[in-house]
């Protein structure tokens, strides 16, 4: 009797550009992390007017470089979200299903978060430009507070992006299950730190925010590795049936 050998289901065709675009999550992590190395943060909360103006006179160039690198990282997040959604849709269709609403939610949360973060960074650039030449701190401080508030609030949609991306990967069975659920957990923690704006508390802001950002960076990198390697856990029944072949004993 000839045994039946089942070959793995053929994964949906992914071009080289799209495959390597999956590394955008890792690129975003590196760029955003590096952006803070160009200049220290301004003495925003509780700092004197003189200290605030002196900061931007001293670190004007570094602040502008950091903003530029941050913007590049934000764009990489958008590419990352698009690749996650696209790969999940491909995997679902390859399994004979139809993508649900999760890939769209993933993109929506990423666009919302990036829009807020870009606006916050634009506020930082405007603060540096005005503060570099100003003699009165009223306008630079107002711009700085506006940018900080946007940045704090942006962690809510940014965390929800990780939640949606994790659920998207889980539903399409792209990558390991634990990786998908880890994204959900990290995203919920990240979004919860946005409550700092309402309730206050340095512990929630500093510790919770630090854990959320670090966890997000590491998760983006891990998902990027899975996307570039083409790791998938879904096996399409129809494709398996077609791929099976009988091998003579």
Automatic annotation (TrEMBL):
Coiled coil: none annotated. This is DUF4386 domain-containing protein. Signal peptide: none annotated. The chain crosses the membrane at residues 20-39, 67-85, 105-129, 149-169, 178-199, 211-228. It comes from the Bacteria. Keywords: Membrane, Transmembrane, Transmembrane helix.
